[in-house]
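can u do me a favor
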């Protein structure tokens, strides 16, 4: 376990975003990226992981680019949430937390582009 202040963890997430290639960041449209301490119960229910918040590091909620039809009107933004608490519990050093936060950011952005979990894991994310 490695506790971090909110500012430290948000900084790690921002560092991950700053390290993303411009072409990926420029392609993100109508996406909010948030940091939250823990998953909400409804987020765990959607994934079928009720009672297991310790393992959910991040979550993409929205309509990925591959599933958007021509009539997609972007009323509500897609949301990528990175969860601080699970990162702190599962990793034992600052370097591990920062490294995993980076992987989690990339993983969730991958979902926006239509990649599934299996493909993202094959890629190391």
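np, heres the sequence
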């Amino acid at each position: 376990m490695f506790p971090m202040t909110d500012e430290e963890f948000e900084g790690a997430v921002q560092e991950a975003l700053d390290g993303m290639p411009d072409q990926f960041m420029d392609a993100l449209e109508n996406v909010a990226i948030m940091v939250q301490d823990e998953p909400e119960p409804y987020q765990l229910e959607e994934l079928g992981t009720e009672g297991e918040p310790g393992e959910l590091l991040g979550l993409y909620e929205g309509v990925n680019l591959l599933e958007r039809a021509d009539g997609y009107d972007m009323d509500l933004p897609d949301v990528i949430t990175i969860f601080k608490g699970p990162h702190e519990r599962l990793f034992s050093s600052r370097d591990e937390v920062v490294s995993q936060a980076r992987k989690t950011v990339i993983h969730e952005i991958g979902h926006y582009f239509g990649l599934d979990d299996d493909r993202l894991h094959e890629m190391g994310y």
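The two ends are 21 Å apart (CA to CA). hope that helps!!
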